[in-house]
Amino acid sequence: MHAIQTLDARTIIDAGIAEAERIGNPTNIAVVDASGCLLAFARMDDAWRGSVDIAIGKAWTARAFDVETKALAKLAQPGADLYGIHASNGAKVMIFACGMPIKEGETVIGAVGVSGGTGKQDEGVAEAAAQAFARG
Length: 136
Prior knowledge:
Number of domains: 1
Number of strands: 4
Shape: globular
CATH architecture: 2-Layer Sandwich
CATH class: Alpha Beta
CATH topology: Beta-Lactamase
Largest sheet: 4 strands, antiparallel
Mean pLDDT: 93
Radius of gyration: 14 Å
Distance between the termini: 15 Å
Number of helices: 4
């Protein structure tokens, strides 16, 4: 089983930065390992400071629950099964889109979280970043 290593994390972040530069939106990108520990982080020049913790939280949440945060957000709406989950784990759970598990086969071995743009912008950056690992 492969585990995300520092070099993998740099590849993931570099791919995210390349996509963020392509679309012209500075962003924050976080990569966590299989245990949910922060492995790498990048804050692009002019990226929102308020999005730093959000990007890290999205990556952690994607790994903690092994699900894209976009899917978790739907389950966390009032009346849904996981309503209130954002208040769990010391309010560390992020229920915004753009936290994505990174898998090897069916096994989650880490995650990436992106924050700093619109949902669509962040999602494109997160997808590019996650796909870089699959190619790596």
